[in-house]
Specification:
By secondary structure, the chain is an alpha+beta fold. Helices cover 20% and strands 32% of the residues. It has a five-stranded mixed beta sheet, with helices on one face. The relative contact order is 0.25.
């Protein structure tokens, strides 16, 4: 057993083809993170941009953010190491 805590999972609503990539905010009631990405949803470009944008916003390495479901839609489930709901909300300040 490694002692590592389980990764945090959060739903993300993606807005592709935005003017710039950024975390837009969080819908705390629905527990959904909203992320705009400048990449188009073609050949996984938007998915790569989602993980990069979320990692950068929260000061994490890109390998700590993974898409675990929803790779072909706008609503995705991310798994993020070293994160929990409270830390996510603090990162939105």
């Amino acid at each position: 057993m490694s002692g590592r805590s389980p990764a945090f999972r959060v739903q993300v609503r993606v807005k592709p083809r935005a003017s710039r990539s950024r975390v837009l905010g969080v819908d705390a009631e629905a527990r959904v993170l909203e992320v705009a990405v400048s990449a188009p949803p073609v050949d996984g470009a938007a998915n790569r941009e989602v993980t990069r944008t979320v990692a950068k916003h929260f000061g994490l390495g890109r390998s700590k953010v993974r898409i675990v479901s929803g790779e072909r839609g706008r609503l995705k489930m991310l798994e993020i190491d070293d994160m929990d709901w409270d830390a996510l909300l603090r990162g939105m300040d």
